Amino acid sequence: TLRPSHVSVPHQGVYVLELADLGQSIAVAYSSPHSALGLVDKGTLRETAALAGHTGAVSALAVLPAGQLLSASADASVLQWDPRARRPAATLSQGGHKRPAPLLSVAGSGDGVLVAAGSELTGDDAVIYFWDLRKAETPMYSHSSTHSDDIPTLSFHPSQPHLLLSASTDGLLSLTNALEADEDEAVVEVANWGVSVAKAGWAGEGGGRVWARSDMETVSLWDAELSLVHDFGDARRAAVAGGWATDYVVQCDFRGDDLQILAGSNDGSFSHICAPSTDRWALERTYAGGHSAIVRSVLFDRAALRVFSGGEDGALAAW
């Protein structure tokens, strides 16, 4: 069991929702009504700057290869930030779209050119917007029939920069060619998990597999063509060697070919659980003492061999 080396609470009364790695600092998204992003020093966990630009709550963060930050918001915009300048470098709006929709997710391509954002269901449409950062005033195009409900998660393939993974509360996972304007031609693969998908991502740098987590705390593994490899079921019911009991899933990751789950307990602790085979979970490490409520985001700084976490108690912890 690890104990934190540092704990801080930058703002009382708001949740820490998401963390993004900016090298020497961490970008922090907070819950409403705190719409400014925080820049936090990794060494001290003190907030050194606030990035103010959104008029609504920030819903998602992403980092471009050159270190620029993307933030999506309920105010229907994506802001591109140069953290050193501490002001938006560009505002990505929905253009002339008939009804601007709150945004739930954002992703940047590995070549630093494309940005995609997914919306809440607004009216009859849940929309994925695509921008080219070289001319980002308005979207290149938008796709409104890929999903039929909220789109809370987007991720570009790590080595194929134009292949976008999306997943939705409609139960679908989809792969889209982000360079294709015609939506009927753009969708490459679709899979129906049959449950509301909260988060999905690619496996490692090669992107040979896809993991997904549902709103019901179930976890699944898919191949690169979105054929189901294994449905692990409810992570809360999984027998874990080492005696850990899971209350919720924070996020998933891979080490080589092995799926790893960051599993949380309602007391604020969380654990690293590895599934080297499809039938037995193994407890690798528990993190305790940094939080008193649900952990919302965990960031691995593999270069520095450090872990950072943020939670609903408003705390940031370094491990």
TrEMBL record:
SMART domains: WD40. The keyword Repeat applies. WD repeats lie at residues 51-91, 288-319. Keywords: Repeat, WD repeat. This is WD40 repeat-like protein. The lineage of its organism: Eukaryota, Fungi, Dikarya, Basidiomycota, Agaricomycotina.
